[in-house]
Amino acid sequence: MEPGKEDYESLRSVCVGFARSPRLSTPTPERPRNKQSELRLVVPETLRADMLHYSHEDFQGGHQGINRTFERLRSEFYWIGMYADIQKFVRECVDCASAKGRPPVIGPSPGNIEPRYSFEVVSIDFVTELPESDRGNTYLLLFQDQFSGYVMCKPMRNTEAQDVAEAYEECVFRRFGASSMIRHDQDPRFMSKVFARFRDLLKSKQRATLGYRPQANGQQERSVQTVMRSVRAYVAEVDQSDWDEHAERLMFVLNTSFDAASLDTPFYLSKNERPWSGAGRLQRNYSYALACGEDLQKKAERARSAAETRKWREHSDRVKAGFEAGDSVWLYIPKVHTGLSRKLAHLWHGPRIDEINDDFRVKLKIPGTGYRVNPWVHISRLKPRALFPKRPTSET
Fold first, then answer.
1. How far apart are CA 356 and CA 364, in angstroms?
2. Which of 86-90, 92-96, 190-194, 201-205 is predicted most confidently?
3. What is the DSSP secondary structure assignment for residue 247, as one 8-state letter?
4. Cβ 330 vs Cβ 350: under 8 Å
5. Model confidence over 35-44: pLDDT tens digits?
6. 100 near 87, Cβ under 8 Å?
7. Among 117, 223, 113, 220, residue whose Cα is nearest residue 176
8. Per DSSP, which regions of the chain are E strands?
9. Of 19, 207, 256, 300, which has the highest C-beta tally within 10 A?
10. Residue 296, Cα to own-chain centre: how many angstroms?
11. Tens of pLDDT along 290-344?
12. Strand, coil or helix: 284
């Protein structure tokens, strides 16, 4: 039976609400977005599987999460139930499920550095224990702008302090200039005199995290997990010798992916512009009405939640309570001598507190104890020590 005029009218009344022609002025009904009056292509059901593959499994997708994949698609395309389809597709992705790492450890980290502009503070970290690639690389050095989250990488063969300084000059200095501060852990390569001399030449400051305190540089630690999770999804399982090529290629994908903390992409926050991707060529060029300065300011304010700050402050006060200078405490040192089993070792050791700072740092009385550790530690590595009187001995 041929459809009649009434059937066509009924179908048109339903379709008008979901797509529009460039000649019409009726906007697409959806949840509010920051960018107004953008035209998007309505994807038919026969092409949705291809679009999901492009936005998630392809190199322009990078095997990112549900929200990042959704934000990458929704800026250019539309169909009913898009978020539900993306959610189902990402959760069923075998490569993503097998490449996930353990979740980060949660802990109070007040006093973390809060940069005011792009590349004011650059954090660096090594990814070690990687197989030798076809190009002879066995290490991956990562740089990240702590303001925008922009990530850069450098596969390396050697990890001496001179090699680290040359990698910083190539990846950061030549493209964005010298940063005001370099943030890193207590790796000997970053703490060496050679790297300190290089820092002095750049007129930059250098600040290391406390020992066994990765939360102090949590953004960089999470970035390492994100990069390696994406690389694992593409690396060949035969010999894993192509990891360095995939790592360099995935930097653009990670920097153009939506970040829930900053509510935008690292590429936009660092360069104040949008990249020209393959999918964007299907659309016309549209200008953005919001000023870059106001946009960045709003996103920075929304990223800092007053409720979250208050929660960590209360939690931090509970951590600091009960410690005073001169107290005997237990210090957690998760290392054992060579040849000993960590499962059978005593990892808590007992020095005394010499000084307490308001930024959760504690100075311990190390001289004379036989321990070879940095006297400044984070307060979360301590616990009170109860001192009992010694057992009396009888003279015979």
1. 9
2. 86-90
3. H
4. yes
5. 555 678 898 9
6. no
7. 117
8. 41-42, 77-78, 121-127, 139-145, 151-156, 181-184, 205-208, 329-332, 348-349, 352-356, 361-365, 376-378, 382-384
9. 256
10. 19
11. 567 677 777 777 766 655 666 666 656 555 556 777 777 777 777 777 777 666 6
12. coil
- How large is the average pLDDT for residues 377-384? 76
Residue 191 has pLDDT above 60, yes or no: yes
Q: How far apart are CA 348 and CA 386, in angstroms?
A: 13
| pLDDT given for residue 166 in this prediction | 85
Q: Which long-range contacts does 324-329 make (Cβ < 8 Å, 24+ apart)?
A: 324/353, 324/356, 325/353, 325/354, 325/355, 325/356, 326/352, 326/353, 327/352, 327/353, 327/384, 327/385, 328/352, 328/353, 328/385, 328/387, 329/353, 329/364, 329/382, 329/383, 329/384, 329/385
The strand pair at 361-365 and 352-356 is best described as: antiparallel
pLDDT tens per residue across span 106-133: 445 545 677 788 888 888 888 888 888 8
Distance, in Å, from the CA atom of 388 to the CA atom of 396, rounded to the nearest integer, reads: 24
Question: What domains lie within the chain, and their CATH numbers?
Answer: 16-99 (1.10.340), 121-255 (3.30.420.10), 322-384 (2.30.30)
Residue 184 near residue 217, CB atoms below 8 Å: yes
Query: For the chain, what is the largest distance between any 2 Cα atoms, rounded to a whole number of angstroms?
Result: 116
In the predicted structure, residue 27 carries a pLDDT above the cut 50:
no
Number of Cβ within a 10 Å radius of residue 192: 16
Look-up: residue for tokens 């092409």?
47
Strand-pairing partners, residue 356, are: 362
User: Which pair of structure tokens corresponds to residue 394?
Assistant: 């009888």
Q: How many CB atoms lie within 10 A of CB 365?
A: 15
Instruction: Please give the share of the chain, as a percent, with pLDDT higher than 90.
Output: 3
7: amino acid identity, one letter? D
Cα 23 to Cα 41: distance, rounded to the nearest angstrom? 15
Cα dihedral 347→348→353→357 (10° resolution): 60
Reading the block at residue 253, the tokens are 């994908």
The whole-number average pLDDT for the span 189-216 is 71
Q: What is the pLDDT of residues 71-107, one digit of tens each?
A: 988 888 899 999 999 998 888 887 776 565 544 444 4
